[in-house]
Structures are given as C-alpha cells and as structure tokens.
Amino acid sequence: MTSSAPPSKQFNRSIYLAAEGMRLMRPKYFTPEVGQFHDWERFFLLDLLRSTPYHLIIEVGCSYYRLIGVKNDVTDYLGIDINPPRARRSEHGDGAVIRCDADTFFRRKRLINEIMKRYERILCILPFNFLGTMDAPLEFLALVCQSPFDLVLSLFSTSERATVARLKYYDLCGIEVQGVTRTDEYVRLDCSNGFQAFAFDPIFLRNRISAYGFRLNNAEHHDVCNFLHFSKEASFKDI
Q1: Quick check: helix, strand or coil at residue 84?
Q2: Does the pLDDT at position 212 exceed 90?
Q3: Model's pTM, two decimal places?
Q4: d(Cα 56, Cα 53) in Å, to the nearest integer?
Q5: C-beta of residue 218 within 8 angstroms of C-beta of residue 206
Q6: Of 99, 123, 156, 175, which sits with the fewest C-beta atoms within 10 Å of its C-beta?
Q7: Mean pLDDT across 144-167
Q8: Positions of E strands within the chain
Q9: 3-state SS of the chain: helix, strand, coil percent to 5?
Q10: How far apart, in whole angstroms, are the C-alpha atoms of residue 142 and residue 77?
Q11: Are 78 and 56 in contact (CB under 8 A)?
Q12: Positive or negative CA dihedral for 78, 73, 114, 211?
C-alpha cells in the first residue's frame, strides 16, 4: 500500500491564506472534540516541558503565539507562520514570530545552524495536525527530520470519532469535504477546493521518523488525537 501523497499544487497553502484558513484557527469554529484536542495538546506540552528542559521552542504554524504559554521563564520562543500576527514580538518580550513558509524555514540551513549555535536544546512543535494539512506532508516531514531539533507532533487520530469530528469542523469553517480515503497509514479528507487533510497512523509515523535517527520518548493517545515526542540522537544532529 503506497504512502505517497499526490504531487503538491499548494492548494492547502492557498486555503490557509484565505478566509477558510483564518476560520480554522478561531475558537468559535471549534467543535467540542477540536476544543478537547487543543486542551490535551497544551496539557501534554506542559507535562513534557516540566520534565524535559529546552532552551528554545519553535512552533511551526503558530498563528498568534498560540502555544507560547506552555514555556517557562528561561525558555525562548520562536513562531513560524505564513500569515503571522502584526506584532512580531510578543507582548511581554519573551517570544518572536517570523513570516516564512514552513518548508522554506527548514531549507534555510544557515539559519538553522545559527540557531543551533545559540541554543543547546531545541524543541520543534508541529501543532494541531499541522503536518496533516501541509501540501505533500510526507515530503515536508522528510525535510523536518533532516533538522537537528527534537520534535513534537500533534495529530488527529484515524478513529471514526476523530473523522466525524474533522468533517464537522471543516464544514463549520466553510470547507466542503467530498470524499474520505482510508488506508492503513492515514485517513485523508478530499475537499472541493483542492484542500486535503490527513490524519496519520502514529505507528506509521513513528517508524518513518525513527529512520532519520529519532527516538520516541513519549506518546499519548486519545480517541480524537495523538501526541508524539521524539529526540534526535546526537550522532544525527549535524545538518
């Protein structure tokens, strides 16, 4: 069974720059299950950061500093977003956001090397099913896995309950789902505007990410969502 996504035409990127993309991150469009996903994500990260110190958190697809509140006072925060808030520095001066496509950020090896020189331990967060809504998500994941950062993924589950919740959520946001494709590796929603949204099987992702020198440190599974925390083995940190 193939795991390759269709060639990217950047339909998803266009949606995230349009009105539908704005609605996707507004709480008034969240179904109860989506709201629960956000709550569990925050709890998972708070627990993780209490037990595992990091000097920098990078949130990819950060919206308006969405997860800055999970960090402690000695941890810096960098957000990456194609449609960032006007305020590029946080209100309290403890974080910053840059306007950048996610794949472009991970291709900027010189910038990543400069970040690594400044910070010893870095956690990269792909929040709220960010991976599943990227154009060509597995190609993007391969690019992410070439970076030297530890990694957290927040993912929709492939369960029937999660799929129903996603259908309701996208309908509220004005995204019409025309078909649902199920495989052993993912559940994909195909939409009328070309938008595709994946929910990946966590075992499939664990095996794929581990091949790049990552070790799974922690995983938390719910009926609606899954959270995975990986650390990059020292011998694989050169980029």
Answers
A1: coil
A2: yes
A3: 0.87
A4: 9
A5: no
A6: 99
A7: 96
A8: 56-60, 76-81, 96-99, 122-126, 150-156, 177-182, 186-191, 196-200, 214-221, 225-232
A9: 40, 25, 35
A10: 23
A11: yes
A12: negative
Q: Using DSSP, state whether 64 is helix, strand or coil.
A: coil
- 111 to each of 6, 105, 144, 156, how far by Cα in Å? 30, 8, 14, 30
Lowest mean pLDDT among 107-111, 179-183, 231-235: 231-235
3-state secondary structure of 50: helix
Mean pLDDT to the nearest integer, 96-121? 94
Residue 15 has pLDDT above 60, yes or no: no
Mean pLDDT of the chain: 87
Alpha helices in 25-74 (DSSP H): 32-51
pLDDT of residue 175: 87
Element (H, E) at 16: helix 11-16
